[in-house]
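Budget justification aside, the reviewers requested a transparent look at the raw inputs and outputs of the sequence design task funded under Objective 1. We therefore reproduce one unedited record. The lines immediately below are the structure tokens for a 386-residue chain.
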């Protein structure tokens, strides 16, 4: 049994899409057109695990999806090919590596907050903090200058803002050209940052071509740069919108790790997982997914599955942390998850420490909804006398 799902134009800022919820509650799967290509949506935690961990579903780029096959684009590969590229970046995305970068992130957060305070009272936290802080951390991780990072981010945003397949293809080609120039430049520069290591054979003895290194670099940027910026902004919005939860965190900072997990679970920032292709006919809930059909795991919807999470629509920073799907599942689980957690933790704690009375400047918070992500487009706040 299946249903058809259409994209909503408006929605509650903390709710999963009504259509996605309907799929979850029905216990079925649903059809959905993405870039004019039919996909099956899988919504429950059990179904999401199936699509992301069962060898009958392949991560090879589904027909009609972008980018086209490119060397190094490992999010569109299965094991063992996927593992070769993942191994190349493994040391830079461990929990230890994220913790080692935390001191830099704290300094960067304080620098952002210094500028916010100097220009206040009042600020839009999206450009001034939620986007700027992760960009600083990501530039440090890759070994990019502020200018290189800004130019690359602008090129990437041109891709994600495109509204049709032809525009996406053209802007993707431009982005890859820009990224490959950086890869080639780093081959000529000594350094011990991620982009330098992508461009050379290190202890792993894996030497990538310029095209392969560019593909790996591009996957990391598209999967993590904009997504973590949106995550940080969304988490700050959730705490500002729910002052009682913010107060619990202020009074009990030891709750922060669990609070981060709860925000990742509750906030529907990462709605669509990486599309998969069904390699053989699979029957699921009475519906046959045919070989060659595309499927999409709905991560945010799986995070509201009552079969896994008690009172799943309740936002509670004291909830006992459980596995969630914010970063995916299986071998394609986001490599940058540990860095993202550190960024969210530092961003929240430093903001509320610097501005104990920070609050939303109004009730109207416009939301972004595109490329499978959902988060505040603006986050205007004020502090001081009311």
């Amino acid at each position: 049994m299946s249903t058809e799902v259409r994209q909503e134009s408006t929605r509650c800022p903390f709710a999963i899409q009504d259509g996605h919820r309907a799929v979850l509650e029905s216990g079925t799967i649903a059809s959905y057109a993405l870039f004019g290509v039919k996909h099956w949506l899988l919504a429950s935690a059990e179904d999401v695990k199936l699509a992301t961990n069962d060898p009958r579903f392949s991560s090879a780029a589904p027909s009609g999806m972008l980018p086209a096959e490119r060397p190094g684009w490992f999010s569109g590969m299965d094991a063992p090919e996927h593992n070769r590229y993942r191994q190349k970046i493994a040391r830079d995305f461990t929990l230890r590596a994220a913790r080692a970068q935390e001191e830099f992130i704290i300094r960067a957060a304080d620098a952002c907050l210094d500028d916010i305070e100097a220009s206040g009272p009042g600020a839009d936290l999206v450009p001034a903090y939620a986007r700027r802080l992760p960009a600083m951390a990501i530039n440090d991780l890759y070994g990019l200058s502020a200018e290189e990072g800004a130019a690359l981010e602008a090129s990437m945003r041109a891709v994600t803002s495109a509204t049709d397949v032809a525009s996406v293809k053209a802007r993707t080609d431009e982005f890859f050209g820009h990224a490959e120039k950086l890869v080639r430049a780093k081959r000529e520069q000594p350094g011990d940052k991620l982009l330098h290591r992508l461009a050379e054979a290190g202890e792993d003895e894996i030497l990538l071509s310029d095209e392969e290194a560019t593909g790996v670099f591009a996957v990391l940027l598209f999967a993590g740069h904009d997504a973590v910026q949106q995550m940080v902004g969304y988490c700050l919005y959730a705490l500002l919108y729910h002052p009682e939860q913010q107060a619990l965190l202020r009074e009990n900072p030891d709750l922060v790790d669990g609070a981060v997990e709860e925000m990742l679970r509750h906030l529907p920032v990462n709605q669509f997982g990486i599309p998969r292709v069904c390699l053989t006919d699979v029957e699921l809930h009475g519906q046959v997914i045919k070989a060659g059909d595309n499927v999409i795991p709905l991560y945010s919807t799986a995070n509201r599955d009552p079969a896994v999470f008690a009172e799943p629509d309740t936002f509670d920073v004291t909830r006992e942390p459980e596995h969630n799907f914010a970063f995916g599942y299986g071998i394609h689980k986001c490599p940058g998850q540990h860095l993202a957690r550190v960024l969210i933790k530092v961003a929240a704690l430093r903001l509320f420490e610097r501005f104990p009375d920070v609050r939303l400047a109004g009730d109207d918070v416009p939301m972004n909804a595109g490329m499978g992500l959902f988060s505040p487009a603006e986050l205007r706040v004020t502090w001081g006398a009311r």
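Residues 143 and 192 are 8 Å apart (CA to CA). The domain at 2-382 is CATH 1.10.630.10 (Cytochrome p450). Computational costs for records of this kind are itemized in the attached budget.
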